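Risk register update: the risk of archive-format incompatibility is retired. Evidence:
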Amino acid sequence: MALSLDGRPVLRAIDWRIRPGERWALTGHNGAGKTQLLKLLAGDVWPTAGRGRRHYLFRGHRFDEPYGVKQEIAYLGAERQDRYEHYEWNQPVEHIIGTGLYRTDIALDVLTARDRARIGALLTRLRLQPLAHRRFLTLSYGERRLVLLARALAAAPRLLLLDELFNGLDAVNRAQALHCLAVLSRSGLPWVLSSHRAEEVPPFATHCCELEAGRITAQRPLRRPLQRPLRAPVRSALPPPQHPMQQRSSARVLIGLHHVTVWRDEIAALRAVSLTVRAGQCWVVHGANGSGKSTLVQLLYGDLGAASGGRIERAGIASGVPITQFKRRVGLVAPELQAIHPRYLRVQEVVASGRDASIGCDRTLTGAPDSARVRQALRRVGALSLQHRSLRALSYGQLRRVLFARALVHEPDILLLDEPYTGLDAPTRARLRSLVEQAANSGVTVLIATHHRDDWPAAATCELELSHGRVLYGGPRR
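Archived output:
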């Protein structure tokens, strides 16, 4: 079986069988085809005509098309999570999980008492009870992922497909997801978990399928966890700062927050936060899922405002000056930015839009200089070969590289990076980390939000630790 997108082969000669009770790890680097293979299994995309067929065996019957069995397969990936952001579906968590009971995208009716009981039991099973009445878009990226896992399980599927489940999860929520998979493993439900990190393959996986350049290169049973690393080793310690804090203490203030509180749907995502970001500093913002890291990045960028009583200042932006003037000096990489880009856009358009901080090009490329700048940005992130593709033909990791190119295309004064390395394989992560280090060392102001210690730049000068929207520590890197 094969699959092509935009006239380009994505999957080739796929021959794979998943049997009841099997638990598969699907491994491979960015662009290997993992996501498209899972979508092919789920019936969301169609194989190339005349190049093989899918077969589903269900209740003693064989189906040559997904009709009739598609509703029995639950697929959870970044695209489904992004859809809620893109369409601003902001229902309470209880209602989101309820759509899984009826296998719809949005709630079509009021939940019954029986529905609520089933949802409550599932939330208890997954240890998510505190989120039940929160609205979906007020949750952190990792919390949303766990809620959508609960939604997938509410449908009582016969096959569960999980695309990079652990993306964006901190240590606590990663343990929650592993607990869920452990419970599922005792139930006999077959599942497939894709990952490019060997350490994310659970010890209770029974089989491994390796994918490379759209081809299955190995299928084998697992008798112990994978040993071959799929990413670079974690740095055990960070070197001392290359730009000591005292050298930057008198630099020009670019952004100042003064007792800022941010409310999101009646939830205080940040509380009385004060922060001064000076030219040339490199800040690391860390904390658990739900601590307020993403909200802080959106606030600094200008997509969120401060509540009454707080104040935010940006260098060169006085009252009445459009915030776009500030955004044009900033390079942004964030999950929300990835979610809102329409999938029909071409890579060239997305990268070029970084000049105007727009979604899609507000103006056409004006000849050779603009085109050369776009190509140079793509070359820097190792994505020049993607320039003519549409976003729908890219993997999650490839799209993240494109967003890095968009952030760098106009040589920004400030880089705001929210979990920028999520979903990236080892070579891509190393390349993009190197670009961030180069930017920081050249004097670009950098602020990176992450919960992975090994994602901290060596050039980091300052750190901000958040917990439940409050500052626990803010100052020189400890």
